[in-house]
Amino acid sequence: MTKDVIALTSKMPDPWAVLAGLLSGGPDKLVGTRGEGAVIQLCDPEGRPLVSVEAPLLVSVEGEAERLLGATAPPVPYWWTEARATTGVAEAEQLAGTFATRLASLLGGSAWPPDAAGSLAVVKTDGVSVAPEPAAAQPAIDVLTERVAVVIQDRPVVAMTAWLSDAFRAAAEAGLGLQIVSPAGTTLSPAVRDALGGWPSRWIVQDERDGYYDGLTGAVLRWQDGMFAPVASPDATEDAPRTPVAATFQEVRDTGERQLALTFRMVHPADDRLVLGGGLETVWRELTGAPPAGWGTAEPATLPWSPRRLTDVAHERAPEPTWFVVVGNRDRPALATVRITRTEAGVEEHVTLAFGYGSSEEPPLDALPAAAEALATRHHLQSMLVQLRKARRDVAVPPRFEGPGVPLAFVLGAEEVRAMPGDRARRTPLAEQPVTLGPRTRPALYYPLPGDPSDLSGWQDFEQLMRHLKGA
Fold it and tell me: Which are the contacts of 221, defined by CB distance < 8 A and separation ≥ 6?
C-alpha cells in the first residue's frame, strides 16, 4: 500500500472533520504539530509520528488530480488533503487510509488511491512504535544518512509537492543529496527533474530485472556506502569506468508523440509597476491561443492563472528567489517552471516550458518567430532556445531513454545584440542568416537552426553559433 493517501473533498475539512479523521487511531493517540501548525501528526507513545497530515489545499485548477493521480476529483474548486504514513509501519498506512476515508465520507468526495479507502473503524495500534529521530523528524524523508536523504514515493507521478519541496530544502541546508525511490511504472514531473541537480541526487526506479536504476540515465544502482550509487561493469577499469545500463531503460518506445520545449531568460528593470509572468503568458497565447490554466508554488497547481497574484508572491518573498509551477489545460498539456531572482541587473525571470503533442498533432513552428518578437519587444528577453523532442504528450518524464531534443532556433535579445562588437551578431557561419525582430535601431535576432529535426545535426549548428557569438 502507498505511503501517501489523499482525500479529495467537495467541502473544506473543518476542525471537527479533521478531528474525526485523527481519531482513527483512538482517543488516546498523541497529536502533535510541525511547521507552525501547518502539519498535524498522529504519534506513538514516545511522540514520534505515525501519520503526518498536511494543511488542506483548495484546488481551483481543473485536471490536476487527473494529471498527478489519475483520479477523478470533485468539480473545482475542491479540497486536497494529504496524509503521509511513516515508512515500514503497516498500522500507520491503515491510519492514513482511515483518516482519508473518514474525510471523504464526512465531506463528500473520494480517497486516493482507491485501495487505500478502508474501514471507518478505529485502527488498533497498541504497542506500535516507529523509528527514532532524525529520520522521522522530516515527514517526507524516509531514510537519512550522512550522505543523502531518501524519499520513497509510490505515486503515479512524482510531483513537486509541498512535502517534497521541504525535503529538497532540508537536504540542501544539511549539505546532502536527495534520492527519490519509486516503483516501476511511475513517471516524474518535469518540475522535479529540473530540481534534482547533480550527484548524488537521483531518481531511483525499482526494477524486476536489475533491481534499481537511475530513471534519468539508466545506470544500474545498488545501495552502498550510505546511498544509491552506480554499479561498476565487469570490464570497468580505473581509467575507463563503466556502468551497466538497465534493460528496461533501453526499451525505446516511439509513439510519435513530441514536445516543443522552450527555455528563455528575461531581465526586467526593478520597478514597482513590474508585473511578472507576462512573457510566459505571451508565449503561451502565441503557441496555443489561450493563457495558462493555473499556477502555484508547488504541485498540484492550485490557483487560476494570474500574473498579478504571482507577482505579489514574488514581491513578498524578495530578496529571496521564488519558484513557481505553471500548468496548461487538458486540451494542450503543458508545464512550465519559473524562477524569479533579484540581481544587480534587475529582476531575472528564468522559464523552462514544454508543450505536448500527439502523433496526429503538429507543433505550431510557424508561430515561433512571432512569440520570440513579442518577448524581445515587450518583455526584455535576454535569450531563448527552442527544441523539438520525441517525448510524451502529457509532458511527464518516463524512466526510459527519450533522447535529447533537436534545436530549432536561438534568439538573442536586443541588449545582448547591442553589446556585441561590430556586426558579429548579424553575420554568422550558418547557412541561414538571422531574422531581425523589433525595430531596426534596436533589434533582437532570431537564428533559425538548419539542422534536420529528424536527427541531431542541429546541435552542431547550435554549437557553431555559440562559438561564433562568443568570439571563439
Answer: 202, 204, 211, 212, 213, 214, 228, 229, 230, 231
Backbone angles phi, psi at 338, to 5 degrees: -130, 130
Which residue, chain included where needed, has cell 506500535?
A: 128
| H helix or E strand, kind and range, residue 436 | strand 435-437
The string of DSSP codes covering 219-277 is BEEEEETTEEEEPPPTT--SSS----B-TTTT-----S-EEEEEEEEEEEPP-TT--TT
Span 429-449, average pLDDT: 91
Cα–Cα distance measured from residue 213 to residue 204, given in angstroms and rounded to the nearest whole number = 6
Tell me the whole-structure pTM to 2 decimals: 0.90
Residue with cell 488530480: 65
* Amino acid at residue number 195: A
Grid cell, residue 174, equals 544539511
Task: Name residue, grid cell 549539505.
Answer: 175
d(CA 383, CA 410): 7
SS percent in the chain: helix, strand, coil, step 5: 25, 30, 45
pLDDT at residue 241, rounded to an integer? 67
Helix (H) or strand (E) run with residue 281 in it: helix 278-288
| 335 in Cβ contact with 190 (< 8 Å) | yes
Between 36 and 88, name the one with better pLDDT: 88
Mean pLDDT of 233-256: 82
Q: Give the SS3 label for residue 432.
A: coil
